[in-house]
């Protein structure tokens, strides 16, 4: 992340980069800063979200007065220079325009050295799950030229929050052209996607931000594990720590060449039912989780429709005697394009996704004996997943402090990042959910978290 022409300018760390990439376009605020007064949030103070100082006496929806019949039937008014559009992700033209908008204007580091390298496969995976609706892929175009200058998406994402099932959507990819961010298009996009979701009799939505908005359900911290330290150093993505050499850093981050877990193999279509049962039982460990059907597992975790440029990678462990699948683990891939570097054009980035093991089924993180067994199992599974990631040219493996990740982050040499991810549920009031950090709300905790849902 340094200026390659200035050898004396210090390089930033992986953590610095992901902190920058976590910044939102609207109402930015450091996650570590105290909340601003509610009145300063011009948009959010008008929405059904809890205030920072609100005491939660009972959990549940905030506004229950509306019905689809009372929802505005027409799109919200927009400036005469612009027009609403519904993107057709079956169209190469619309996919190309979405790629260009996100590539140039979504998030990037302050030095404009790295950018997310989206692909058609990634859009098809992230925006077209089971039950997806085209009218929830909302754009704004310049009326005269047809240029796409803003976007927001919603996809089905039913939740369980502390035992209560909730019909919901996940809101993502809110993006406004950099030169138009003073036009208050972001709040308008949020209102429009809310309107379209409400027309389907859905009143809650899950979303995340690197910034503090009213009011997070939970906050998790990023962890980053270099898999190809030399390359990361060469592109300015990682720095050389004090009292270390390049050789020592390579040695510290080197993994084995092959997985060691007995029965380890790639997930196959025949495993979908078993993985679904594992997933569904495993999510009881958490206060907030996503409800998935077998079709959802096929899309989100198996991803068998993908061929070249595979986004989701999933592996299972099969008992050699019973032939039963006892564990699965997955990660998804979203690379960075590297600018202004003559040697490297891309950095491979993987994100730990969902996993489960029979070791933890029916147990909670209060069971200390089981936690030790689970810690050992997860260390083995994640280590082997990173080996598989290295085989597909992944240079950095990321994981949040969500799920039971804090059981292995330190031992597997994940560096604690400066980036935080805040989770929000629109039109829903709930008390705080443990995000896997210690009592300082800064360092990784030691015993897992209450967050069982993974957002892209």
UniProtKB/TrEMBL annotation:
GO terms for cellular component: cytosol. It catalyses: N-terminal glycyl-[protein] + tetradecanoyl-CoA = N-tetradecanoylglycyl-[protein] + CoA + H(+). Residues 234-454 form the Glycylpeptide N-tetradecanoyltransferase C-terminal domain. One of its GO terms (molecular function) is glycylpeptide N-tetradecanoyltransferase activity. Its EC number is 2.3.1.97. InterPro entries: Acyl_CoA_acyltransferase, NMT, NMT_C, NMT_CS, NMT_N. Coiled coil: none annotated. It is an enzyme of class 2 (transferase). SUPFAM superfamilies: Acyl-CoA N-acyltransferases (Nat). Monomer. Belongs to the NMT family. This is Glycylpeptide N-tetradecanoyltransferase.
């Amino acid at each position: 992340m340094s200026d390659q022409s200035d050898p004396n300018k210090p390089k930033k760390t992986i953590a610095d980069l992901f902190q920058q990439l976590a910044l939102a376009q609207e109402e930015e605020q450091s996650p570590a800063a105290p909340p601003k007064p509610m009145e300063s949030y011009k948009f959010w103070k008008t929405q059904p979200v809890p205030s920072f100082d609100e005491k939660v006496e009972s959990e549940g929806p905030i506004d229950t007065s509306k019905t689809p019949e009372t929802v505005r039937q027409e799109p919200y008014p927009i400036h005469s220079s612009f027009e609403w559009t519904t993107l057709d992700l079956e169209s190469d033209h619309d996919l190309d325009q979405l790629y260009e908008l996100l590539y140039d204007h979504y998030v990037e580091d302050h030095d404009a050295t790295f950018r997310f390298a989206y692909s058609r496969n990634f859009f098809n995976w992230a925006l077209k799950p089971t039950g997806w609706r085209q009218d929830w892929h909302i754009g704004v175009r310049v009326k005269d030229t047809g240029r796409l200058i803003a976007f927001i998406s919603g996809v089905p994402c039913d939740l369980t929050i502390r035992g209560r099932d909730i019909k919901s959507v996940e809101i993502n990819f809110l993006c406004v052209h950099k030169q138009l961010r003073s036009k208050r298009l972001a709040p308008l996009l949020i209102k429009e996607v809310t309107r379209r979701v409400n027309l389907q009799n859905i009143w809650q939505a899950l979303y995340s931000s690197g910034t503090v908005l009213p009011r997070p359900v939970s906050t998790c911290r990023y962890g980053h594990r270099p898999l190809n330290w030399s390359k990361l150093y060469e592109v300015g993505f990682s720095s050389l720590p004090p009292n270390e050499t390049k050789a020592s850093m390579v040695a510290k981050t080197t993994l084995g060449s092959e997985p060691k877990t007995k029965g380890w193999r790639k997930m196959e279509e025949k495993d979908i039912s078993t993985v679904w049962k594992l997933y569904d039982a495993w999510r009881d460990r958490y206060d907030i989780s996503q409800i998935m059907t077998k079709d959802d597992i096929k899309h989100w975790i198996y991803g068998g429709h993908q061929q070249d440029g595979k986004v989701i990678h999933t592996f299972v462990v099969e008992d050699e005697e019973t032939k039963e699948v006892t564990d699965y683990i997955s990660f998804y891939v979203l690379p960075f394009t590297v600018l202004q570097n003559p040697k490297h054009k891309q950095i491979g980035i993987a994100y730990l996704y969902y996993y489960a093991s029979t070791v933890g089924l029916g147990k909670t993180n209060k069971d200390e004996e089981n936690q030790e067994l689970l810690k050992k199992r997860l260390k083995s599974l994640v280590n082997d997943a990173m080996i598989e990631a290295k085989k597909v040219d992944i240079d950095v493996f990321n994981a949040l402090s969500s799920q039971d990740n804090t059981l292995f982050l330190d031992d597997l040499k994940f560096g604690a990042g400066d980036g935080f991810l805040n989770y929000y549920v629109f039109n829903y009031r709930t008390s705080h959910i443990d995000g896997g950090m210690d009592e300082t709300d800064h360092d990784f905790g030691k015993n897992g978290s209450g967050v069982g849902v993974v957002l892209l």
